[in-house]
């Protein structure tokens, strides 16, 4: 059994910053890719950023240059630093980890509004 717990969501003004964190716990031998997805109201869930155990990253075009993903393999954590936030970044953000199969957190709401 694997659990993913996210933290760090909230309300922020346009142009502001937030940092999301996710910790994986449970029966974990090794975590392959970890990442963040988001789902805005009325839209499909989409990839925001992901990072492999070796540190390779990829980002959605919409967040390149503004968001940075990082991980601590020893602690099984993945963070998402979000800068220059825009209203269109408003969504529920989900942590994802691939450990033999995909696991998901429950999500944390990010609202960008003045």
Describe the structure.
- The chain is mostly beta strands.
- The protein contains no helices and 11 strands.
- The strands form 2 sheets. Strands 2, 4, 5, 6, 9, 10 and 11 form a 7-stranded mixed sheet that branches. It has a 4-stranded antiparallel sheet with strand order 1-3-8-7, with no helix packed on it.
- The N and C termini lie far apart (40 Å).
Largest sheet: 7 strands, mixed
Mean pLDDT over the residues: 94
Structure class:
mainly beta
Distance between the termini: 40 Å
What is the 3D shape? globular
| Total count of helical runs of at least 4 residues | 0
Cα radius of gyration in angstroms: 13 Å
- Listing every helix as H and every strand as E from the N terminus to the C terminus, the arrangement reads EEEEEEEEEEE
Give a count of the beta strands, DSSP E runs of length 2 or more: 11
Percent in strands: over 45%
Residue runs with pLDDT of under 50 for 5 or more positions: none
Helical percentage: under 10%
Compile the SSE list and pairings.
Blueprint: E1 2-7, E2 10-12, E3 18-26, E4 34-39, E5 46-51, E6 57-59, E7 67-72, E8 77-82, E9 91-99, E10 101-104, E11 108-112
Parallel strand pairs: 2-11
Antiparallel strand pairs: 1-3, 3-8, 4-5, 4-9, 5-6, 7-8, 9-10, 9-11
